[in-house]
Amino acid sequence: MSRHRRYLVYLYVGMVLAVGSVFTYFALGRQPIAPDQWVPLFCFTVFLIIADRFEVRTSQGGQWLPTAIIDLAVIMTLGASAAMIMEGVSILVGDGFVKRRSPLKLAFNMPATVMSVGAAGLIFHALPFSGDLTSPLFLLPALVAYMVFSGLNMMLAAIVVAISEGRRLNLVWRADYGWHFLSGFLTAPLSAFLVFSYEYAGLWSLLLFGLPLYIIWQSHKLFEEMKEAHINTVAALTTALEADEPYTHGHSYRVAKYAVQIGQRMGMSPAELEELEYAGLLHDIGKIAITNDIVCKPARLTKDEFDILASHPSIGSEIVSQMKFLKGAADLVRHHHERPDGKGYPDGLKGDEIQLGSRILNCCDAIDAMTSNRPYRAARTLEQCMEELRRFKGTQFDAEVVETIEAMVEAGDFEIIAQTDGAALEIQRIVREAARKHEEEIAYPFPAA
Ligand SMILES: [Fe+2]
Ligand SMILES: [Fe+2]
């Protein structure tokens, strides 16, 4: 982070701390805590600190907070002040002592969350039906409270990300936080459910409620692990295909990495980024149907050879579309050689007719080709590569994508991945080893006498 940005972050955190303190000072007295509410408040706080250890993260870095269920339940049963005290203590213990976050993070998280939960609490109790537990309309103020809580909290956090990473706020919001609103439809009913059981059974309902929460967390974790395993399998498959050719080795892996960074910067959602990552890893998979004499030819291709090579995006997209969980990536694979001026292939699409993901892949493909060593020329530097992108901006490369990469390079957020990157090399070593063993077996089919 540049010094200029760092000062801006300090300034912003200072502002949040000041506003949060003033808000807390005035809001705490609005819904006083009754003497018999301190024990339940203590138990809910312990429950929150434990639940915070079981955060649900998605592979793209998003997260769903099961803790919001507890926040809402405390707002509904004990009031806004209780929820603010609970959050304050839980962040101090959880972030400060358990996760050992930096003082700067603590100085931001504490006022931002306390303020958000306080505002949600005050608004919840001012809304109609908030006291009517037996009516389904009770869910409406619960949903509004969730929107206020998560909306305010996430917006304050998105501003920090936008300042520290130099990204546009609306793009950060869309990419990292926008989808959180949907999770309110899961959180609000669950918190209502916790309130029902608490009102009926008292504190031991917390234990009872912890079990389904744990199951949700467990199954989500499993799902994320499976998805990661899928990505790793796909990466291993493509890297194995590239193992024959040292010059393109690791190409798909690097293209996928670049594409996700750029997509993130351009505000793609976690689901779109996942598709883009798969498409990056598999964009050249169609080359398996083309003979190595053409794919690896070190000299210029003849017209016929080029036509054969140009069929790889459509073959690849057909292969990819056969895999159920990769359907969305098939289109991106098909169009990764289209150009904004319509001179690309296979469909000759123009400008915006080409999906953003394919436009990104097209640039990443070129960046990796230029910055890798080839038998007939050495790798170009990032600056030389950027010059080339600028020169063909709008004709060969999408203008918006090139401008995004330029901004990333300027901010120091874009670096060339070395051809010798560890993960790719490791897979290459495994494939070579397997091939060597296989050859040995063929060479000595009979055991020595
Ligand atoms: Fe390609
Ligand atoms: Fe490629």
Word description of this protein:
This protein is mainly alpha-helical. It has two domains: 3-204, Arp2/3 complex 21 kDa subunit ARPC3, CATH 1.10.1760.20; 225-428, Hypothetical protein af1432, CATH 1.10.3210.10. It is 68% helix and 1% strand. It contains 19 helices and two strands. The chain has helices spanning 3-27, 38-51, 67-78, 80-98, 103-126, 139-165, 169-177, 180-201, 205-242, 251-265, 270-282, 292-295, 303-309, 312-321, 327-334, 356-371, 382-391, 399-410, 422-443, and strands spanning 56-57, 63-64. It has a two-stranded antiparallel ribbon with strand order 1-2. The longest helix has 38 residues, at 205-242. Mean pLDDT is 85; it is low at 445-449. The protein binds fe (ii) ion (FE2) (2 copies). One fe (ii) ion binds at residues 251, 255, 283-284, 365.
Secondary structure topology:
Layout: H1 3-27, H2 38-51, E1 56-57, E2 63-64, H3 67-78, H4 80-98, H5 103-126, H6 139-165, H7 169-177, H8 180-201, H9 205-242, H10 251-265, H11 270-282, H12 292-295, H13 303-309, H14 312-321, H15 327-334, H16 356-371, H17 382-391, H18 399-410, H19 422-443
One fe (ii) ion (FE2) binds next to loops.
